């Protein structure tokens, strides 16, 4: 009767586990920054889309009443008691916040306006994710 000595495997060796951990670490180092960068880009894209929705609402308000509202709350309520007001001009019951959870900045100067999100740092200026997103 022939017998061969077959070694029964009972798990992974320490070397095998270290090699797998090293490979996973390298993948995380390569893929991680790309995924995080895309998250920042998606927030900026969401802010731009919200700003475009505000732009449409503001322009519709101007077409109806003849002027832009003094504040963004004029898109929700007839703050000036204008009889030509046909709002609300946005679907929400309250003003939406930017993707970072802050209020949008609205400035009316004469017949023009500027509306901005201050970015991730919530203050004017900045670069990358901290940069202001404005119309």
UniProtKB/TrEMBL annotation:
Any GO BP: protein secretion by the type II secretion system
GO cellular component: plasma membrane; type II protein secretion system complex
Type II secretion system protein GspG C-terminal domain boundaries: 35-134
Membrane-spanning residues: 12-36
Keywords: Cell inner membrane, Cell membrane, Membrane, Methylation, Transmembrane, Transmembrane helix
Mode of membrane association: Single-pass membrane protein
Compartments in which it is found: Cell inner membrane
Family classification: Belongs to the GSP G family.
Record-given protein name: Type II secretion system core protein G
